[in-house]
Amino acid sequence: MNKDLLLHIVRFILLVLIQVLILNHINFLGFLNPYIYIIFILLVPINVNKSLFLVISFLLGLFIDIFSDSGGVHAAACTVIAFIRPVVLRSVFGLSYEFQTVKLGNLGFGERFLYVTLMVLIHHIVLFSLEIFNFSHILLILKKTLFTSLFTIVVTLLILVLLRRDDS
How far apart are CA 115 and CA 153, in angstroms? Predict the structure, then answer.
């Protein structure tokens, strides 16, 4: 087994365990949890097999759903961002994405921030829309999306900075 594959397997397992054992129990201000498990989806190489990536992303969300008893909302949100990731990558990185030279650790803060923000917002909009699933509660969906996204983006960017230092 090559080193990169082992790294992705360990990252998958660690992120699921950290999410379900620690972060799901935070409830900062009564409703805020950072959903850092999506870091796995953010960091998967861009040249990965698309079908396999969708299945693995679905499984990531499914494991979170199983441990959180959340009925499939995380699996749906992970599958959506895995599916839409090429569009986000192309929009944010342009030619770097086309030539498959994008490495998140080598990017400037602005590009990394935009990529993480778009992916987190899409994930959270899908997640909370499915979780609440009532259009009359649109303000609650938007409130949870906004504040949880801000919390997740900050924590995710901090983790990415720490991971980047380890790679150097």
Answer: 10
